[in-house]
Amino acid sequence: MPAFALESYEHIKNVKILKALPGNIILVNRGIEDGLSRNDHIKFSNEASGFNSRAICLKSKAETSYWRLYRLPDAAAFSKDYVYTIHGISDREIPYPQDKLRDVEQQLKDDEKKPIVGKDPFKVRRDLPEKLSERDLLEAVGPEKRRLQIEQVLDQDRLERDMEDFRFSVYASPFTRQSINQAESLRYGFRGGNVASKYRVLTQFEQQQTKLKDPVTKESISTRGTQGQLQFVIHKLNDHISSLSLVNYNSQKFSALGTPKHHYQVGPIGFTYHIYDSKTWEYIDLSYIPLYDVRYTDMVNTDRNGRSDGVTTEKESGLRHGIRFAMKSQINERVSFENLLWVKPYQKLANWGLETDNLNLVNDMKLIFNISGNFFMDYNLIYQRDKLWKKLSNLPENNTINSLNMRYDFDL
Predict the structure, then answer these.
(1) Mean pLDDT of 402-411
(2) How far is it, in rounded angstroms, from Cα 165 to Cα 197?
(3) Share of the chain above pLDDT 70, in %
(4) Which tens digits make up the pLDDT trace of 227-250?
(5) DSSP H or E segment with residue 156
(6) Buried b (16+ CB within 10 A) or exposed e, 234-247
């Protein structure tokens, strides 16, 4: 998912001070491409002195940004000779006098000397070619232009830098209730991803377990759901489009039957259109990705008398059209809202017919509360609709999961 500013408790390494300006303003070698934007609030640290200053971003360019230092306990520990790490911190920690810096556009007096213009400013310098041909004035087109675009998208140095810092979240739900079997369950898992603005890897694994015991028959029934996901995103191929690659895994086991026993969805390439973003709305996105869909389902065999005669596993494969609508909003400093809607109609590969009764629909809504530091509590409401539950296993085709998740974020 896209991010357009440094989040609280994220950090960026290998930051250097390029220039010091009057008024405790510095220029550093990190900018918009690293996820930094105007009004971001950070603190600097290095290995020699630890945390040694706080600052507010006054202006951000593609590869550089200007910061106003407002808390500097040890001025001697702040030098161009050091390499720093910057850490995002919450807006609520900005003192009142400095908070007013965010209300107005700052005029920066850069002390960089402008080149001296001679008597004839239009005179061609001797380090330029004596003559320019028509070919020299043409833009790159055809294969040459495509080669330049590919080099820009697949930037090896940028990829290696974006893969340096990873953040993980572990969570567990002390309360989970789902409508399909009226059961309270245990739910736990982890999420992980790199802190980057160009190349992003997102992973998720989750398991939900339930065990019931009939008070009359004393029969025990257990259910287990497992989900996994891997995403790779190349952010901002242009101003509004990002790429999306996706692998999904899903397994739902009800007592002895798996429906699905295993379910794989693989999408090598898709696209995300960024509809809107602002300081309040982190993103509103619409995505499409074709998914190769393989599903294994346990089927109960019956004899001529209608009695159970063992279980067999059936395989079905085809194409799903994955359509995703996603949004996230920062309600206030501690509360945010996130909603993710997936609609996946199924298409058979044999006749390319679209099956309206084989539609995966999942809506995942979260209210996220930052309790303290890296500790969060999420209220999660998930609605699922899968007609194959009814068709293949005689289960309800709708399921609603309510849960409270306790989550802790940490850097790897």
Answers:
(1) 81
(2) 12
(3) 73
(4) 999 999 988 788 789 999 999 999
(5) helix 156-162
(6) bbbeeeeebbbbbb
Average pLDDT over the chain, rounded to an integer: 77
Residues whose CB falls within 8 Å of the CB of residue 162, separated by 6 or more in sequence, listed in order: 194, 196, 197, 198, 199, 200
Answer yes or no: are the C-beta atoms of 163 and 194 closer than 8 Å.
yes
Q: Is 216 helix (H, G, I), strand (E, B) or coil?
A: coil
pLDDT in tens, 295-329: 898 887 777 776 767 788 888 888 999 999 999 99
Bridge partners of 298?
313
Rg of the chain in Å (alpha carbons): 27
Strands 241-254 and 257-258: antiparallel
How far apart are the C-alpha atoms of 222 and 82, rounded to whole Å? 58
Its sign, for the CA torsion 143, 201, 368, 371, is negative
CA distance 83 to 157: 19
What is the spatial distance between Cα 140 and Cα 138, in angstroms, rounded to a whole number?
A: 6
Lowest mean pLDDT among 70-74, 96-100, 270-274, 301-305: 96-100
Amino acid at 346: Y
Domains in the chain, start-ordered, CATH in brackets?
11-102 (2.40.30.20), 155-411 (2.40.128.130)
User: What phi and psi values does residue 149 have, to the nearest 5 degrees?
Assistant: -65, -40
Amino acid (1-letter code) at residue 80? K
Per-residue pLDDT, 171: 84
Half-sphere exposure of 60 (CA within 13 A, CB side): 18
Whether the bond between 215 and the residue before it is cis, its omega within 30 degrees of 0, is: no
